[in-house]
Amino acid sequence: MRKGYTIAIAIISIGLLWYFFIKPQDYQVRVTAKSNTGVINQALKAWSKTLPKASLRQVNDMNHLEQIIYFGDSTHIYEWNINYVTDSTSHIVVDIKDADHSLKNKLYIPFTDTDFEIKSRKTVTEFIENLNEHLKEFKVTFIGKEELPSTYCACVEHKTIQNKKAFAMMESYPFLNSVIGNNGIEFNGIPFIETTDWNMQNDSIVFNFCYPIIKKDTLPTIKDLVYKEFIGTNSLKAVYNGNYMTSDRAWYTLLDYAEKNGIEVDQKPIEFFFNNPNMGGDALRWKAEIYMPLLDSDE
């Protein structure tokens, strides 16, 4: 009997030691979101920037992010873990810790609904509501595999981050229209971007913003304008409707499809734009065709 008490006390002691001093989070919130990992990742980063006292960084991959939010004299640490469920559903687990009052929280949480718990649930709920509103702002339709044709084009290179891609395009629209139209160069299609580098850890991208043109023996030399042959290839295709600022949401749809079906892709998306964002209008009527090149063009 005494041995049984000793074992029980030891187990309880170890459990309390783990709970108060080893358990990484004070509180955990679980929620299901009707979106894929990449969209949630980008929406979380955009939402965090709207908070007056918050910072966020991506940890190792886009499924794991650490956010720090300051509430008065408290520093709350949110560990966001995004887990794939289906093509359009993800499970989000948020581990939350008060860096300054962790022991106090762990002491009170089992017995009462603390202000820390209430604030934590409210913060996660605010993000989910923000995400749901964002999902109403665009539409992505997966099409399938399609051969992307080659074309000759005039391009301007940009180095920026994903959420500033559309601004870079808008800056180049007047320049390209002017220099091409005023120099006898003939258009041969709608504008597009060719991504040459995409760093998913820090969201940086390098891309060429291009207009297809008729190739001639001689073309005028114009500062910042490059002529090049765009080589088409077999690609996965999606159609995006919405503001071009967030057309990268379609990139993640294509990546998810590729991963689920064991298809190797070159993570350098290509986008063809059917509308000029400088003209405004209902963004849900804007259309872009999004392509993710296959590494094996015979697939």
Q: How does this structure look, described?
A:
There is one protein chain. The protein has 299 residues and is an alpha+beta fold. It folds into two domains: 22-136, 2-Layer Sandwich (Alpha-D-Glucose-1,6-Bisphosphate, Chain A, domain 4), CATH 3.30.530.20; 140-293, Regulatory factor, effector binding domain (Multidrug-efflux Transporter 1 Regulator Bmrr, Chain A, Alpha-Beta Barrel), CATH 3.20.80. The chain is 30% helix and 35% strand. It has six helices and 13 strands. It has helices spanning 2-22, 37-48, 102-108, 115-135, 165-181, 249-260; strands spanning 27-33, 54-58, 64-71, 74-86, 89-98, 138-147, 151-161, 192-199, 204-212, 226-230, 234-242, 270-273, 287-293. Strands 6-11-13-12-8-9-7-10 form an eight-stranded antiparallel beta sheet. A hairpin with a 2-residue loop joins strand 4 and strand 5. Helix 2 packs across helix 4 and helix 2 runs antiparallel to helix 6. It is elongated, with a radius of gyration of 25 Å. The chain starts with a helix and ends in a 6-residue tail after the last strand. Mean pLDDT is 87; it is low at 7-23.
